[in-house]
Amino acid sequence: MAGYDYIPHLYNVRFEQPGSARQDDEYMVADLDGETRRVNIHDYASMYQVPWLYDIALYHVLKCETPTEMSGAIKGVWDEHNVDMEGLRVLELGAGSGAFGHELRHTLGVGRLIGLDIEPKAAEAAKRDRPGLYDEYVVADLTALSTAEQEMLEDEQFNTVAMASATGWGNHIPMAGFEKGFELLRPGGWFIFHVKPNDPDPECIELCDWVQAKVDSGALRQAYRRSHFHRKSSNGSEIFYDVVLGVKE
After folding, report:
1. d(CA 210, CA 179)
2. Which ranges constitute the DSSP H helices of 185-249?
3. What distance in Å separates the CA atoms of residue 123 and residue 113, rounded to the nearest whole number?
4. Mean pLDDT in residue range 2-10
5. For the chain, where are the alpha helices, taking DSSP H only?
6. Averaged confidence pLDDT in the chain
7. Strand order across the 238-248 sheet
8. Which helix (H) or strand (E) holds 52?
9. How many domains would you assign to the chain?
10. I need a labelling partner for 32 at 20 to 30 A (CA). Which of 13, 115, 150, 215 fits?
11. pLDDT per residue over 103-139, tens digit each?
């Protein structure tokens, strides 16, 4: 976990044994300023209100390795393709409090980084816990962008759209959001994301079908797809996702 040494150990966090296998049924309890608080791990507004709480729960307690696993895979592919990382203009979808953004900026060294999330508390957490990480952080619904938001994002001329741990389970980016992200990407740009294959969740199934349709139609040239460790479940089992990198044709 050396990649997350910068995340402070501020709270005692414990996870309850989940009542089902669904990832959105995971609850934790944390000792915060003399008070014990119970929170669903996907109650992002509540989690992001407390400095570093989400990161401590995910990266220290559940041993999530997605940001470092993804950045390692991305670097390998980009090195192979001689990508000028300083020349990349990246839109990070579902940016949250910035753990993946930290890797994009500090490990990969991308030139311009715009974060986007639907949750206002995520933007507050990123600015509070990782000040200066993003060049801009947009709070918006990808599926219902205003004219001003659409024009601002189009003007950025993104040559990379990336997201991590932002799919499935009814509380992440919906398919219409993935389609909008793909639309905002310039032809020849990199589309990078995370998907859980062979999962019964309808949104995971839909995303896998969407990816395959893009590849079959020639709209996306898949450059990399491999299984990587995501994190431990609160019941102790290991969760794996596929990391996918493709080029928009």
Report:
1. 9
2. 202-217
3. 14
4. 90
5. 44-49, 53-55, 66-80, 99-102, 120-129, 147-155, 175-184, 202-217
6. 92
7. 136-139, 112-117, 89-93, 158-162, 185-195, 238-248, 220-232
8. none
9. 2
10. 115
11. 999 999 999 999 999 999 999 999 999 999 999 999 9
Asked if residue 131 and residue 52 are part of one domain, the reply reads: no
Residues 201 and 132 occupy one common structural domain: yes
What amino acid occupies position 218? G
- Per-residue confidence (pLDDT) for residue 1, from 0 to 100: 46
* CATH number for position 102: 3.40.50.150
* Co-location of 20 and 114 in the same domain: no
Residues 41 and 150 in one domain: no
Span 16-72, pLDDT tens digits: 986 655 556 789 999 998 899 999 998 999 999 999 999 999 999 999 999 999 999
Find the domain containing 33 and state its range: 2-61
User: pTM of whole model > 0.90?
Assistant: yes
